[in-house]
């Protein structure tokens, strides 16, 4: 559905004339879901695949920076945040496909300063939102 938006009102021979143009359509947020199905493990296996704590595109900070800001009572605006731009599942398997250790997630973050992709373990990151209970 296209809506009209008033652009301007002009007068011609003393008669007001309102000029309308179609309002640009607002693109809806596109949600892209990437799924994978790991090989089923035997029921007596001590290891299992877990859901990632963070999602692609989430804004995160390192726990080390968060602790530094907390220790020195710096405002959260001093914290450098990163957007997750890559996610990798790290799992060690036997030749038969059994897990040797607990699988873990790694997250690729790109710095605005260097543009290099740096990988972090899940435990090293914290979600950078004020509603996060771990945030100070």
Description:
With 136 residues, the protein is mainly beta. It has one domain: Roll (SH3 type barrels), CATH 2.30.30. The chain is 7% helix and 33% strand. The chain has one helix and seven strands, in the order E-E-E-H-E-E-E-E. It has a five-stranded antiparallel beta sheet with strand order 6-5-4-3-7. A hairpin with a 6-residue loop joins strand 5 and strand 6. The longest helix is centred in the middle third of the chain and has 9 residues, at 63-71. The chain starts with a strand and ends in a 9-residue tail after the last strand.
Kindly summarize this structure in a few lines:
By secondary structure, the protein is mainly beta.
* Tally of individual helices: 1
* Biggest sheet overview: 5 strands, antiparallel
Given helix and strand content, the structural type is mainly beta
* CA-based gyration radius: 25 Å
Q: Under the CATH scheme, which architecture would be assigned?
A: Roll
Low-pLDDT sequence parts: none
Number of strand elements: 7
Which range does the strand content fall in? 25-35%
Assembly type of the chains comes to single chain
CATH topology: SH3 type barrels
Helix-strand sequence = EEEHEEEE
Task: Determine the fraction of residues in helical runs and give it as a percent range.
Answer: under 10%
Neighbour order of strands in the largest sheet: 6-5-4-3-7
Mean pLDDT: 79
- Large-scale geometry: elongated
The structural domain count equals 1
Cα-to-Cα separation, first versus last residue: 46 Å
The CATH class assignment is Mainly Beta
